[in-house]
Amino acid sequence: xxxxxxxxxxxxxxxxxxxxxxxxxxYVELPTxxxxxxxxxxxxxxxxxxxGVCAAFGVLVGLRETAPATAGDRVRAVxxxxxxxxxxxxxxxxxxxxxDRMRRVADAADxxxxxxxxxxxxxxxxxxxxxxDIELGHRIGAxxxxxxxxxxxxxxxxxxxxxxxxxxxxxxxxxxxxxxAGRRFQxxxxxxxxxxxxxxxxxxxxxxxxxxxxxxxxxxxxxxMREGRIDLVIVGADRVARNGDAANKIGTYGLAVLARxxxxxxxxxxxxxxxxxxxxxxxxxxxxQRAEEEITAPFGYPIAPEGIGVYNPAFDVTPASLxxxxxxxxxxxxxxFTDSLCQLGTAGxxxxxxxxx
Amino acid sequence: xxxxxxxxxxxxxxxxxxxxxxxxxxYVELPTxxxxxxxxxxxxxxxxxxxGVCAAFGVLVGLRETAPATAGDRVRAVxxxxxxxxxxxxxxxxxxxxxDRMRRVADAADxxxxxxxxxxxxxxxxxxxxxxDIELGHRIGAxxxxxxxxxxxxxxxxxxxxxxxxxxxxxxxxxxxxxxAGRRFQxxxxxxxxxxxxxxxxxxxxxxxxxxxxxxxxxxxxxxMREGRIDLVIVGADRVARNGDAANKIGTYGLAVLARxxxxxxxxxxxxxxxxxxxxxxxxxxxxQRAEEEITAPFGYPIAPEGIGVYNPAFDVTPASLxxxxxxxxxxxxxxFTDSLCQLGTAGxxxxxxxxx
Lengths: 357, 357
Hints:
2 copies of one chain form a homodimer.
Chain A: E1 6-9, E2 12-16, E3 27-29, H1 33-41, H2 48-66, H3 71-85, H4 93-107, H5 115-144, E4 153-156, H6 171-180, E5 186-190, H7 197-208, E6 213-216, H8 221-226, E7 232-235, E8 239-240, E9 246-249, H9 252-261, E10 266-269, H10 293-296, E11 309-310, E12 315-318, E13 325-328, E14 331-333, H11 338-344
Parallel strand pairs in A: 4-5, 4-7, 5-6, 7-10, 10-13
Antiparallel strand pairs in A: 1-2, 2-3, 8-9, 9-12, 13-14
């Protein structure tokens, strides 16, 4: 299932240029911090967990570029490149979480360490983030797979799949696990305007894995629900507050309202790194506003007159009250989410069974 | 406001090729029944009322092509071309309503009438349909304009404007009238995938008329509502059943659900020709399914992998229970709609004040 959107081999960071999918599957090298920043900003690499992985290796790339002279300079350089990479996109918390892990490794380094020693420690940390992400995909998929019954219809939005993470994804990991378990079902993929991650990435991934997928325009989701084709909705998230409010790709909130109106369960699938324990609720989640041209000139082709207003928020926040359950590497959480998410926020802590299914 | 999407001059039928907007404003001639059929099928001319007007003139064009020898042949030829044009698109009832008016003129012709006499009678009828449509736009606009208050936010979907009718439109006629009355307000236009009538046509029309318009992707409507930017939703319709169930461009039903969830009034604006008195409710409205390529390769640019499933219904049906009011040339109808719509079905009858605001 994995398609390795971010790879690190012999000191070289490479990503799949996701803006060229599904036409071309091309890996590009990111040799500088600026190229990492651009790749995140332009969505060549995207998906909250994959952004975190890419940024972690980006710190290594950036440190190598500057080649600081002293141990103190090296720690400062790690902070500088981490601060810089943190300005690429504001919403996905995994970016800041991964950069913080890299900063902590630098801060913990001995002042007598060589450049090689710090580099090796940072490389171990970035590789650990990637390896953990792969493992998390398995665990999220295993935790949620039973939600998808034989013959079910599953609706997803944007891409929370192998292209969005180091491993099998989050929402799509659940789908892959149900498929591997031998169940047959139908996935409906919202195309996800403006950047069409559903059409370009989710449909590509699922079709490649032999899972039946039907593409719809975003505005068809309500009709597809009304026709009884959808048994559950599963999406990923870019940042989840302690109460369960979940920021995800624009359109997710509307889907959650529609799912509720049609009596359809609505699930979020996330690794614990997507939780932002600093936020009590979703009102504090920064929403990235992106360029008008993403809407008015998709792929450079103008579809709207010049001079009009355009509104292009990249994310919205689904209130916890519309979320049936949150699928994590530790199991499926039922509402209210505050207690279970607070425990999830304690890194590495296995949650008690009491708050989990 | 009018931009004359369908014109008839010196026996020549011309339309704006709306597939080329907003890049180019080009009129094309429709010299044959086949070209009229194609223009409707490919949405060079679209919008339920405009389709009706174009098809009415299309009967004249088709009759001239065949040049039947006898009076009886001419009546049969009118029926044949009307039947043919009626196969172009299934959902908008105005098409069948306009073709029926042309059939009735032929059926009423004297068996001794010349080709010229029948032609003149048919031309009078088609011109009457166009003139009535222009007049209806004024009346619909006047009936609904007070709904748009100073400073309001108005959301619309697809294009129910001057490009969709002979006159100022239906939903957009209301907007134009409020603008002419001096009120300032903000229109949000859903881009309306797959064919982007909102981006290409509604934004173009409104911007041209000096009305502030902000373009959004369809999946942003829920967020825009949640942010408190929308005070009412107004859309057109392609066919309305006697109970008020309304078929309109795909996505309308979802908008109505979202509007209800946010406590926002949801209005349909239609001329009486959009009522289908033969249908008790919306379950009998045929929903056109269109080509996959409209979704997978917009404007010929492939955005999805080959081999996947695609679902492309062109319309959905909004149940009357989600509709706050129906704006017609006779005023604004409140629910329940059955009595008032039945009276509207009696052509030309002025409705009693009792059922209208």
